[in-house]
Write the structure tokens for this entry.
Amino acid sequence: MGEDVCGMSQRQFYDTLVSHGIPGNDASLIGYGALRKKSFTWQNDEAVSQQAVSSANSFLASINAGIKVSVSEGKWGKTIWEVSVLR
């Protein structure tokens, strides 16, 4: 059994992020950031809309996750993801 993330199961947290348009692998990493309250970055080639990121950040704020997500364009068509712990 995994630890709860912000009062919900890891699966429920993941499924909610995916329902907001966040790709699966990225939703898992965001869950890790929320669970461990860690800031970190990664990059991949999965496309995501700014609307999906905004929607995910609204969800994260509504459950007091203590993190926010941002994305930016990287080189060679990559997306740079950043999870930041809110202080």
Notes: The first strand starts at residue 40 and ends at 44. Strands lie at 40-44, 67-73, 79-85. The chain has one domain: 10-85.
